[in-house]
Inverse folding.
């Protein structure tokens, strides 16, 4: 995470994509973080997108921005405790375990081009329709937002 934050601080062109379904509890985490970051951070070298559950709709915008780095923020079940988060290289994520958005990471990587792509995965506790975001994931949303804003 520190390396990504350092690259943003240095002024590299970076895209942050928050993915999430706000109707499915903790699955909303990425979308909520992107919304908060858009309110708090203004930089011509940082493009923040709240893609909700349709990140493929932003491929053209991302390509036109020509970022050196893309950070996707989403709920990811990586068998940890709820609210834990970590950075994954795109190659570390198995297609079948990534998310609930019918979003193909290999296809996304092929369409985007040469940008480095990382995923900030937040371990969900509950992702059923109609659930509220759990307290542990809310704390992680605040912590991740703080990490970006303090830089």
């Amino acid at each position: 995470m520190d390396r990504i934050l350092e690259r943003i601080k240095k002024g590299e062109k970076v895209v942050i994509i928050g993915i999430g379904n706000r109707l499915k509890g903790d699955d909303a985490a990425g979308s909520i973080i992107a919304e908060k970051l858009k309110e708090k951070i203004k930089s011509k070298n940082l493009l923040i997108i709240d893609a909700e559950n349709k990140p493929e709709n932003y491929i053209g915008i991302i390509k036109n921005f020509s970022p050196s780095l893309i950070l996707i923020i989403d709920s990811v079940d990586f068998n940890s405790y709820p609210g834990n988060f970590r950075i994954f290289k795109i190659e570390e994520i198995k297609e079948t375990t990534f998310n609930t958005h019918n979003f193909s990471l290999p296809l996304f990587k092929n369409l985007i081009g040469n940008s480095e792509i990382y995923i900030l995965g937040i371990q969900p506790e509950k992702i059923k329709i109609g659930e509220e975001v759990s307290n542990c994931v809310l704390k992680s949303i605040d912590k991740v937002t703080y990490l970006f804003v303090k830089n």
The first strand starts at residue 14 and ends at 19. The two ends are 12 Å apart (CA to CA).
